[in-house]
Design brief:
Layout lengths: L20 E2 L6 H4 L4 E6 L4 H17 L5 E6 L9 H14 L4 E2 L5 H6 L6 E5 L5 E6 L4 H13 L3
C-alpha cells in the first residue's frame, strides 16, 4: 500500500468511507464547518494508543463543548489480519475511554487517504480545516496539546 505524505496546510480529507461507523456514521460536513477537528488513528494491541485515548478524553472534556470535533479510526496492523468485527470491537473498546465517532476501517481506506502509516497518529485541523499538525506516536505530546488547544480556541 502506498501512502502520500501529509502536508501542513492541506485540507481535511473526506471522512466518508466504506467502513461502518459507531455510533451513527461519520460527522457530516455541515456539522464540521467552523470547528477544529482532531482525527486520530489507533490499532489493536497498542498500549500507546490506549495512552493516547486517555489524553483524547481530556481534550473532549476540555474543548468538546466549545467545538472541537474528535474522530477516531481503527487502522489495521500490517502483521495481523483484521476483520470488520475486530475493528468494531476495537472501536467500542477505544470509545469507552474517549467517546467520539469512530470508523471501524479494517480495510485501511481512511489511513491511506490521510497518508498515515503508523499508530497512534494524530491529525489536527483548524476551523478552516487546514492541517496544522500531525504526528505519529506519543512523543512530544506537549506540542500536540498546544496545537489542539490553539485550534479549539481559535474559531475563525
Amino acid at each position: 500500500m502506498t501512502y502520500a505524505r501529509p502536508r501542513l496546510g492541506a485540507g481535511l480529507p473526506s471522512l466518508a468511507c466504506g467502513a461502518p461507523w459507531i455510533p451513527n456514521g461519520p460527522p457530516d460536513e455541515a456539522s464540521l464547518r467552523g470547528h477544529a477537528v482532531l482525527v486520530h488513528f489507533f490499532s489493536s494491541v497498542c498500549p500507546l494508543c490506549d495512552e493516547g485515548a486517555h489524553r483524547i478524553a481530556g481534550w473532549i472534556d476540555e474543548f468538546g463543548e466549545i467545538g472541537l470535533v474528535v474522530v477516531g479510526a481503527f487502522q489495521p496492523r500490517r502483521d495481523v489480519a483484521s476483520t470488520v468485527a475486530d475493528a468494531l470491537t476495537e472501536c467500542e473498546r477505544h470509545r469507552r475511554i474517549a467517546p467520539h465517532p469512530c470508523a471501524a476501517d479494517a480495510s485501511g481506506e481512511l489511513s491511506q487517504r490521510f497518508g498515515n502509516e503508523w499508530w497512534p497518529a494524530y491529525f489536527v485541523y483548524d476551523a478552516a480545516h487546514r492541517l496544522r499538525h500531525y504526528q505519529m506516536g506519543n512523543e512530544a505530546m506537549e506540542r500536540l496539546d498546544s496545537v489542539v488547544r490553539e485550534c479549539a480556541l481559535d474559531r475563525k
